[in-house]
Amino acid sequence: MYNVKMHIILVIAFCLGVAFSGRSVKAEDFDYQTAYKDYQYNYNLYNKLHDEYQLARASYMQYGTLLSEEEAKKVTLAMLQARDGTITTYLTALRMRIKENRGLGDSEKESLFRRIDPEASYFEEHKGKLASVGSLEDFVEDSDEAKERFSDSTEFVFYTSLTNIAIGNTAYERKQIEEVIANLKSKISDIKLAGDKDVSVFDRFFVEIDNKLQRSREKEDSAKDIIGKSEESYRKDDKVGYYNDAVGSVQGSYLYLKEIVSYLKEIIRIIKIK
Amino acid sequence: MNGNNINQQTNNQQIVKDNIPLASQTVKSKVINGLRSVVNKLKDAWLKIPERLRKILRIVGIVFAVLLLLIIILSTVLKLKNKVPVEIKPTPVASFEPLPSGEVIINPSRYATDSGVLKIEEDLRNLEKELDNLQVNETNLLPPRLDFDINFDK
Question: Model pTM greater than 0.95?
């Protein structure tokens, strides 16, 4: 009788434990930071397994024994899975970064997701397929397949996403600056109406500020053009070069924004003195 | 020949030196004689004035001199009495408006403390901080370096 009671209490305690402590991560809890940690974990794992693969490969190449071959197969499989995992989690981190980016519009985000999602699905499937292959030659063949996909498509998605994230970052700051400009212009109109301060000098300031805003937008458009051209160019292999050029253009936009802020501060300073 | 010339020059210099005191004496005597003649003329004019009128003029002259002396003495005494001590004024300090931000504005306008202006300024300050911290290219999110050259070729 005592044993039955003890069993019932244990079962209830177990059920309560599952109900309260075993909370799974909800979809809304999954943000960029979580995705980035996932990616870092997978990348570290990949680096560790890649080191093991190099050792196992060297051992197999030197001795060629059945034991070294088995070890090489085991470690290569794990390394290839980790590589696919790294790509998938990296793409997810990019996706989340884009999702949380406040400077990109919904249509721009959707357009990027349409490119990211098929790549993530490909490497997810590729990872599942790896488990069923057997020989070292099969692993090499499978790795080459992934290499082709990575070079032809995935890498472009990486750099296009990164360029758009950079553009979104500056676009968001510009949007905020434009709000401040609107408020400041309204305040200056009030001062003009009050007629107790000469504000005519600010007209020239705002012409210059509008020019800089326009140039900032042009720099971002130019960055989009550069990264867009990278997929069609004969310099297809120089993806990093294209990316650097595109980000350089976004940096130009950023510098214009900084200049605008210093102009606005100057206007405030003049307003505050007699 | 040369010796004769030198002797003649020395003689000439001596003659000039001897004549300098004579010239100054004649100028002095001329001035003294001039003054003396003016005084004599005034004396003659004075003596020509009738005795009664001379007396009156003398009395008027003395009274005038005494009055002049009194005026000089009185003005000196009054000046000393009315001498006001110099007021030491502190150096004028420029007006300034300490703002909530701790910023000090010299010669502020009425908009230095305007809530609308301060709000815009605060927004700008935040924007500037955001821009300073913004990493345009997000270096921590650069693509991973992966090895795709997998082979077991001997």
Answer: no
Residues A151, B148: Cα–Cα separation, whole Å: 10
Assembly ipTM: 0.82
Residue B131 Cα, gap to closest chain A Cα (Å): 7
Could you read off the pLDDT of A52-98 as tens digits, one per residue?
Answer: 999 999 999 999 899 999 999 999 999 999 999 999 999 999 999 99
Whether the CB of A28 is below 8 Å from some CB of chain B: the reply is no
Look up residue A9 and give its two tokens: 């209490």
Residue A215: how many CB atoms within 10 A of its CB?
15
- Tell whether A96 lies on the interface with B, counting CB pairs under 8 A: no
**Which residue blocks in chain A are alpha helix, DSSP H?**
2-21, 32-63, 66-100, 106-130, 136-149, 155-194, 202-229, 239-272
Would you call B94 an interface residue with chain A, using a CB distance cutoff of 8 Å? no
Half-sphere exposure of B86 (CA within 13 A, CB side): 2
Q: Do the Cβ atoms of A187 and B105 come within 8 Å?
A: no
- What distance in Å separates residue A75's CA from the closest CA in chain B? 12
